[in-house]
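Operator note (shift B, R.M.): manual run for D-ribose pyranase requested after the automated queue skipped it. Running by hand, logging everything below so the morning shift can see what happened. Input copied straight from the record, untouched. If output looks odd, do not overwrite the archive copy; leave it for review.
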Amino acid sequence: MKKSGILNPQLSRVIAETGHKDLLVVTDAGLPIPQEIERVDLSLVAGKPAFLDVLKEVIKELAVEKIILAEETEKISPHMYREIVSLFPGIPIETMPHVDFKKKTKEAKAAIRSGEFTPYANVILVAGVVY
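Run finished. Output pasted below as returned.
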């Protein structure tokens, strides 16, 4: 039995298989996930697990070189925007309109759905390297 880190076997595998420049999406409960990418659905009930809890655990195990956010996040969910950005000091942040963000998710290796009900609580992680 695994005793630490991410215990969900699908999520653990997805992170382990993610290579440099691959995209992983961490989403709220409402973001449409394209059929052509893998879906790791962690949602249980409204708000659980929280988006930030999922994101914090993912980035403990994944090297991230850049993040991508929808432009609308800062205006519509400013608290969430600040929380997300605070987790990535020194990491470049790209923003794009939400409609383009949704299109960009089609390029992702997988999407990890949380139970978050905060609008625009979504981020695309661009995988980095550890050296």
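Quick read of the result: The two ends are 29 Å apart (CA to CA). The longest helix spans residues 51-61.
Leaving this for review. - R.M.
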